[in-house]
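Blinded run. Sample ID left blank on purpose so nobody reads anything into the name before looking at the predicted structure. Input follows.
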Amino acid sequence: MKANGNKHSPATSAVAPAKPATAATAATADKLHRSMSVWNSFTLGFAVVSPVVGLYAIISVQTVVTGGGWFAALATCLVMQLLVATVYAELSSQFPIAGGAYKWARQLGGVAAGQFAGVIYVSSTIAMLTTTAYTGGVWLSIFFGAESQTGHALVIWGAVFLLLCALLNLAHINIFKLVITLGVYAEVVGSLGVALLLFLFFRQHPFSELFQHLGTGTAPSETSAFLAALAIAGWAFIGFDACSTIAEETHEPKRMVPRAIFFSLCVVGSVVLFNSAALTLAFDHATLLGASATSDPITPVIAGSFGEWAEKPFLGIVMVAFLACGASVVKYTSRIVYSMAREGNMPAVLSRLAADRTPRNAVLCTVSLAGLGLLFGLNDGAVATVIAFGTGGLYAMFSMTTGVGLYTRLTGRWNPDLGELKLGVRGLVINTVAFIWSVFELVNIAWPRPYATAPDAPWWQLWAVPLVLGSIVSITALYILTNKIRKKAASKSVAPQ
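Blinded prediction complete.
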């Protein structure tokens, strides 16, 4: 097995030549510390995907836009995301490198593909962190009894939430592990535990309720409601790729990281489906629809079912789950920033490691950029824009990763069977379907839906995802083209006469 591991090292099993930066990094002592077990990797992925954050953040807009009956869309999204996760597992079993999808795009598709992937990846995960911080700040304010709905107050609470996430990443690794573990326990109690009680003792409707009321919301028809439900459900099943970005900090990454990717998404997906079913079956539809107009539609119905005594403990559990999610997003986004800086695609200062071999500069950069994104929250109507970009950007990354994997697989530049996870022809079929799904979902999320935003929303909010992604891709392309022209001109100037 040891010989097999050597055979599959990134330097020999990749496309043709090894990347100098990767080899240089491996040859130095200045690399990330392998302090994460498979359990730590799983808990990180679990905390980032987060049943609480994923479901409680979308249940309001799902109910308002679709009217109900969105369970089928949620289940469909989970099944298709498992196919995407399979491609990520294949890649991570062969290329367990910090940076995950960014490094794979560079390794398989070349430097330019890596630059595009890195910019999209960093931008979307930072937007995801901004959204998590804003919504986490809402729960933080409610927990401490400061339920102000003004944009300025919520931005301040979001900034406090971000500061806590940064401190957890700068603290000793054992403190971070403890909080993430507590977050998993909070998820089990706050989501699965509550859902079990609701399902067993407070169920009011037959199972057919899960598929009723579709198209009775703001969406003009059942078809548009289902497509909108698919787009919104996309938020609930992102983040499993976090396990791949910390591969250099995980023991036996070629075996353990693919397991963590599958396990985290399967467990979280199952919990999200069960929770959504329990909530739908336990609450009167009219009551849930009315509560969904508030920023916290869950607590009122929880207190109504269990009693007022349950409100504070429930809020505390949700707050811990959000904090674990936010801290995990900071960790895995900072590893992408670190990896890009190590390759020379971001300022070199972001690739420097502290004495404990953690990329503190990358952590501070990640939190600072996410903090700037909170300024969108000053206008309450723009929060939906941040959520859409955070989701759409990651599906752009899924599209690029599965697309690069499919292209290099078909052209013979990548042989997946050299990795630890060997799927044969099944891998090709899964990769193809995963790519088609990722592109479809990206377009679906980016599609302008006036009925899903405020009536007076400006045009740029409706077109936010294509506008922002288009701008990022255009600027990156211009940067790459300018660099090529500069290098060509420099080579001509030093050429012998």
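Unblinding after everyone has recorded impressions. Confidence is low (pLDDT under 50) at residues 1-29.
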